[in-house]
UniProtKB/TrEMBL annotation:
It comes from the Bacteria. CDD domains: PBP2_LTTR_substrate (cd05466). Residues 13-70 form the HTH lysR-type domain. Transmembrane segments: none annotated. Belongs to the LysR transcriptional regulatory family. This is LysR family transcriptional regulator.
Amino acid sequence: MNKPVALGQVSDFDIRLLRIFKTVVECGSFSAAESVLGVSRSAISLHMGDLEKRLGVCLCRRGRAGFALTDEGREVLRAANILLSAIEDFRNEVNQLHQQLRGDLNIGIINNLVTQSHMHITQALKALSARGPGVCINIAMMVPSDIEQGVLDGTLHVGVIPETHPLPGLAYLRLYEEQSSLYCSSEHPFFAATAPDDTAIRQAHAIFPNYRITEQAHRWLGQLHCTAKASDREGIAFLILTGHYIGFLPDHYAASWVARGQMRAIRPDEYRYSTPLSVVVRKGRRSHMVLDSFLGELGAEDTGREGY
């Protein structure tokens, strides 16, 4: 009695032979399978012989009586169908990952960007959400320094911050320039004035942002009489609305108060500066499909990835 042959690891060659075997069975003979497989009958015979040797069983009878599966052949065919179907399912699932994403996107954003008319971030998040129900977007509103730290330590995948003093471990993608003007409220003496002179502006009580700002912003604020500080832009708005202070705000953020007649810009053609807003990711990061898709929607698929 022949010793049973134990099948080792299934190789790509084995899978190819099983596909040939399945096609021969479906065609009903070696000759009928020639045109489907695009190989000669003798080559098919050799492949079938190789498969039988690999498996240690006789798969079919071929001769004058025609082609017929053995009992072992029927069992191998059943197992082959399960295996080949599983391979196809795996291929389909992997391909669907590129169309229906799954996973988290942890993003840190500075306050008050939602009123920005460019809406690059909003549109990118909208497109990302449409890619699949398996995407979970987690937004944290934070100050720039905490966002940078979160991206560096991995608690955040990506951040959106003013680009003031770029850190060496981070990669920055410029989104747009945010324009800021000097504002006062309707209760401030400057509100009714046509154009306060420089001396009056520099003597008025002003607000200094208690967070990182650009050199251009520093130059402007250095000329003002700053007697109050605020940790974020909402705090600056609160102080301006008291009627006692003037301060710089992004134009898009101040627009709603301007429309209601509660604020106005002071000599906006002169007292203004711009701040670059950037998306930030960790340099040398590994590929992350959800993050890569989000950056792709912003036009920055490769920002910060290994090799870039």
